[in-house]
Design goal:
502 residues, mainly alpha, 23 helices, globular
Length: 502
């Protein structure tokens, strides 16, 4: 399918029906299998929804940071901090997710729950858009149905789709931009690309793919699209930066350039191999699928490029793989269509194409099993967190709190004054002056300090992703604070409670 035809709305069916009634025994059997997997995926999502509403503590460290900043926005109308003034915490993302979480929290929802509901709604949107995009490029209802099942059952998507972080919403907006591009609606595509950028500033794969695809066919339109999108985004960003006194660019760009570590990229590469079944399927039908639906593979290429360029950041997690995984699901479904997988399977063919049922089944079973384990783990961790926070409340009075445990900061104070991991990195790179905080520690201005280290019996040097403070500040804690308690927690280390020396 040439680009012109792929951009023709008439080529993409919008029907919502399931495939027509099956005609053969094999087709009926495969349909039943798909229905079973669809029910299992829906049940897993329902349990995820129940857990995100029930849990009181964070599912990830950054979720607590984002929630605390959204609370500040809701109560004080302030977002983006001066890097050299307290609070020493960086609003690392563009503002849309913070604004949505703050708005929902004003309705009475706990802030973490508000953020999780936004991510969950975005996940449902990704599932729906995956189906519609595949339908547009294939007109094959079975492939569209399979895309929705794969998106709904892939554990990486359900994991991050129930955490109050910006990633799932940014990917939803990016996918919506690509969908409207495929429907020849460039204005809507530009709007959603801008929304994606103002949710997460690295959401660049979709607009880059759209520009390249337009350039290959209609250079003038490509230039108009790029200039209009860039002009609108640059103007809005400059306005936000002016309104925040320069703090917007300082937080989202200057403070967000974390150190890179090759080891992080290796870790991501190993984890991404977990999508090996989808990679195999997409590669098996790449040649015919490229001819029929080139735009999706271009999008996958740019998603992988953004992933490769950003995943090596210290502090990165598997959320950096979300967009690549979604694009890979779409391309795998396109490859199956290009190889006539469903017609050959229904006809009982002995061709090698029908063997792709094996990697499909492995992917679905493996990911549903991983989801089950994740759900059980979240229940256990939540109970451990409740025990930990209950124990910490007896030590954390109303004075200033400095905590390496981000969840404890949110639960005990509704936010944090110092975000140790980012603060430590910014001190090392000379962005933040460490003296103000060191003087406060020396003057015992914090009534409670929570660390993951026993400073009286130091162990091996922590790695670069450990939430800790610069050595000079740890030394001030040794001099002016005493270890009062060791609290068990879900973290690899216990939480050590320090109080000022009388």
């Amino acid at each position: 399918m040439a680009l012109q035809s792929s951009l023709d709305p008439s080529q993409g069916p919008a029907q919502a029906e399931f495939p027509a009634p099956p005609q053969t025994r094999t087709e009926r059997g495969l349909r039943r299998v798909l229905i079973v997997f669809a029910i299992l995926a829906a049940a897993a999502l329902a349990v995820h929804l129940a857990l995100l509403l029930w849990a009181q503590n964070a599912f990830s460290g950054p979720e607590s940071v984002v929630a605390g900043q959204a609370l500040t926005l809701a109560h004080e109308g302030k977002l983006y901090n001066d890097l050299n003034r307290s609070p020493y915490t960086v609003c690392a993302y563009t503002p849309l997710f913070y604004a949505g979480e703050a708005a929902l929290s004003k309705t009475g929802l706990p802030t973490e729950t508000a953020g999780r509901l936004i991510s969950f709604a975005a996940l449902l949107g990704i599932i729906a858009l995956s189906r519609r995009i595949v339908l547009h490029y294939t007109s094959d209802r079975y492939c569209g149905w399979l895309a929705a099942i794969l998106a709904g059952s892939t554990s990486l998507l359900s994991y991050w789709g129930t955490i109050g972080q910006v990633d799932t919403l940014a990917v939803f907006f990016s996918l919506a931009a690509f969908y409207f591009f495929s429907q020849s609606s460039l204005a809507a595509a530009g709007i959603f690309a801008a929304l994606a950028f103002f949710t997460k500033q690295t959401a660049l794969a979709a607009p880059a793919a759209i520009f390249v695809l337009l350039w290959l066919e209609r250079k003038k339109i490509a230039l108009r699209f790029a200039l209009a999108l860039f002009g609108a985004v640059a103007t809005a960003a400059a306005a936000i930066d002016f309104a925040t006194g320069g703090r917007f660019f300082a937080d989202t760009i200057r403070a967000n350039i974390n150190p890179f570590a090759l080891q992080k990229l290796k870790q991501h590469a190993i984890i991404f191999v977990g999508a090996g079944q989808l990679i195999l399927i997409a590669a098996a039908g790449f040649k015919p699928a490229w001819r029929a639906a080139r735009p999706l593979f271009v999008y996958l290429g740019f998603a992988l490029a953004v992933f490769a360029l950003t995943a090596a950041k210290v502090g990165s997690d598997t959320n950096y793989q979300i967009e690549s995984t979604v694009a890979l699901i779409l391309c795998a479904c396109l490859s199956l269509h290009a190889l006539d997988f469903f017609p050959l399977t229904f006809a009982g063919s002995k061709k090698w194409v029908t063997l792709l049922q094996i990697p499909l089944a492995i992917h679905l079973v493996l990911n549903l099993r991983m989801t089950k384990n994740l759900l059980l783990e979240r229940v256990a961790v939540e109970q451990q967190f409740r025990t930990e926070i209950s124990a910490l409340r007896s030590y954390a009075d109303s004075g200033r709190l400095l905590s390496a445990d981000y969840n404890a900061s949110l639960q005990l104070r509704g936010g944090m004054e110092v975000e140790p991991l980012i603060y430590n990195m910014l001190v090392q790179t000379g962005v933040i002056d460490p003296e103000p905080l060191r003087r406060d520690l020396a003057a015992q201005k914090f009534s409670t300090i929570l660390l993951f280290e026993d400073l009286n019996h130091p162990g091996p040097a922590p790695d670069r992703e450990t939430s800790t403070l610069p050595p000079a500040q740890l030394q001030e804690i040794r001099r002016h604070y005493r270890l009062l308690a060791r609290i068990e927690s879900p973290y690899p280390s216990r939480v050590f409670v320090y109080k000022p020396v009388p």
